[in-house]
Design goal:
Structural class: mainly alpha
Order of helices and strands: HHHHHH
Shape: globular
Radius of gyration: 18 Å
Helix content: over 70%
Number of helices: 6
Length: 180
Amino acid sequence: MQLLLDLVQIIGSLYITLVLLRFILQVCRADFYNPISQFIVKATNPLLIPLRRVIPSIRGLDSASLVLALLLQIILVLVINQIPLGHLGEIFGQVLAAALIQLLNAVVQLYTWALIIIVIISWVAPGSYHPGAQLLAQITEPLLAPIRRILPPMGGLDLSPMVLMLVLFVIGGALSGRYG
């Protein structure tokens, strides 16, 4: 039974990450012709297209993808914690809070890994034109640009990924309750 729950959690978390990535790609105005972007669009369309008929976009943002991510995360919390639906009314606030925290944590983890990969690529293959490297650069640039304006490159080194990584670690720690 535990193996099945672990498998559901892994697959569910991966799909939720794809849905969150789709939202992030739209917010960052990433290249949707990138092969990886195309994969994300095709993987998330079966659930997003019907939801878009009911949930309109707000200020040009795909709110349906956020709602889908939240609904999937709530379902995942219910399944993983084996909460019967009859008790959902009593603890819905707790389930919703747990789902929101897990979604925020997923975004923090996504950006943390994206930064780590970008830093490694900058050491190994600077200026790489790989579709994955381009996509990671496109989603991290909106967060790195304000830091670069405050903290310019020092001696040819761009320290903005390190600063952003520290901010992400603090946010991740706060979400996990380490600083509370």
